[in-house]
Design goal:
This protein is α/β, with parallel strands linked by helices and 480 residues long. The protein is built from 15 helices and 20 strands. The longest helix is centred in the C-terminal third of the chain and has 19 residues. The termini are far apart.
Length: 480
């Protein structure tokens, strides 16, 4: 018997018995688990039965189940349980669903079983022992012409940000004219089963839920599939999505589908990530900052002209306070610093409270939507302390993949650290990033980071690749 043969025999028996006992009859109560998801008595009863059986047979092991123990970390020997994968299908009488479980040992998945009751098929895999469908070893489909490929997608994700779904839409659009068929089965167990058993050529599943993906990932790996994340890098648990492919050709095509590009009108260079300053680039809020700082300066008997403020934009409050000390010719006391910062924050909230959506920079919303359609990542890199809450208030937060603001503890612009931090976090090299800035410090920071930069608002700068009055100048996308 193989290393995990005892666990496999046990799991197959218990999964089939639990399904026979609880699912071969009425659905029972069907409840809304979340806005877009259902749970039934069948789900809860099967998970309860499997959990009890596992803990009785293997004392000291842990359970990571969808319905009752999804917060349990993966440690030591941990079993994942998805009692019914495809509950919505089951609830409406569509037979594309199954029971799936996996065993983690030492941080890696070593055993998995998927039971598809309506097809009388049971597929299992053990690390190093291959992938088996009933009593027959199976492998991914090899060497199929790309024009005949069939790719399945997991359900469109209902994440906090719609950009994830937008990126999936863009990928589907890209693949539509390049492969034979696109399918959406509504159950991860069917998606992974299709690839592992050689019935489809690839699947894309965008979730981090281990109960959804761990069983199928091991099966596809043991069947010879290539596994990567949405950026085309080797897949690791915790990545936003997983791609399982029969071969490198289809893997490369899906990688291109998810890694969209943007190029400026009249330019040839292509970018994978656009990074935006916020104040003065997304929202016309710089006048609010200027008036708030002036009110704060007056607490120590100073003021500041707009010409003085312009080079200080985006450099962070530490540099602005340092400038004030130079202007006063003395160091500020701790109490003065605290009062200045408090007055500035209070004044900015009061000033910015009267801003409306019309104060968004012209064309910015349409431009961000264009990037989403193209599958291009978008992020904010701002020194402002209130960027996150302001972006949320103006309804633009969902248009970005990531926001880095003044709460990130690193040197402020013109240092390149914030831009490099964002590019590293999103996995895009600096040379593939395009920055949008309005402040001299931000323009210099982008160039120091090795990134191209567009000056927004009409400001001319030798650091900028292009200067535009508004984003309306950029809405003609050659790829659309």
């Amino acid at each position: 018997m193989t290393k995990y043969g005892r666990e496999r025999v046990f799991l197959v028996r218990e999964m089939q018995e639990a399904y026979r006992r609880y699912a071969e009859g009425d659905l029972g109560e069907v409840r809304q688990k979340s806005r877009f998801d259902l749970v039934t008595d069948i789900d809860c009863n099967i998970e309860g039965a499997l959990s009890a059986a596992i803990l009785a047979a293997f004392p000291g092991d842990h359970i990571h189940g969808e319905e009752t123990s999804g917060q349990q970390p993966i440690e030591g020997r941990t079993w994942t349980i998805d009692p019914i994968d495809g509950t919505c299908n089951m609830a409406i009488g569509v037979k594309l669903y199954g029971v799936q479980c996996a065993l983690f040992d030492g941080g890696e998945v070593v055993l998995s079983v998927i039971y598809l009751p309506h097809f009388s098929e049971l597929i299992w895999a053990e690390k190093g022992e291959g992938c088996w469908l009933n009593d027959r070893r199976v492998f991914v489909k090899r060497n199929a012409p790309i024009e005949q490929a069939v790719v399945s997608f997991g359900d469109y994700p209902h994440a906090k940000t719609p950009r994830v779904a937008d990126r999936q839409h863009a990928a589907v659009r890209y693949l539509y004219s390049r492969i034979a068929k696109i399918r959406m089965f509504g159950a991860a167990c069917i998606d992974f089963y299709g690839v592992a058993a050689g019935k489809t050529d690839a699947t894309v599943v965008i979730t981090k839920n281990l109960w959804d993906i761990a069983p199928g990932i091991l099966m596809c790996r043991e069947a010879g599939a290539l596994l990567c994340n949405l950026r085309g890098e080797p897949y690791a648990f915790g990545d936003a999505g997983v791609v399982a492919c029969a071969g490198e050709e289809i893997a490369a095509l899906i990688r291109r589908a998810f890694n969209g590009e943007y190029r400026l009108p009249g330019q040839d260079k292509r970018y994978k990530l656009c990074i935006f300053d916020f104040d003065g680039v997304i929202l016309n809020s710089e006048p609010c900052h200027y008036r708030a700082w002036n009110e704060a300066f007056r607490t120590v008997g100073a003021d500041m002209s707009e010409e003085e403020y312009h080079p200080l934009k985006s450099t962070g409050r530490t540099n602005i306070l340092r400038y004030l000390e130079q202007k006063l010719g003395r160091a500020l006391t701790g109490a003065e610093r605290e009062k200045i910062v408090a007055v500035k924050d209070s004044a900015y909230r009061r000033e910015s409270a009267v801003l409306l959506r019309r104060d968004l920079i012209g064309g910015v919303t349409a431009f961000l939507q264009l990037l989403a359609r193209r599958g291009v990542s978008a992020a904010i890199a701002s020194s402002g302390a209130h960027t996150l809450e302001t972006a949320e208030r103006f309804g633009v937060l969902d248009l970005f993949d990531f926001v880095a603001d003044g709460s990130v503890p690193m040197p402020k612009k013109p240092a390149p650290d914030l831009f490099l931090y964002v590019s590293r976090l999103l996995g895009v090299p600096p040379e593939a990033c395009l920055v949008f800035e309005d402040a001299p410090a931000g323009l210099a920071a982008a160039r120091a980071a090795g990134m191209d930069v567009v000056a927004v608002g009409g400001a001319q700068s030798q650091d900028a690749l292009l200067s535009v009055a508004s984003f309306c100048d950029l809405l003609q996308d050659p790829a659309d």
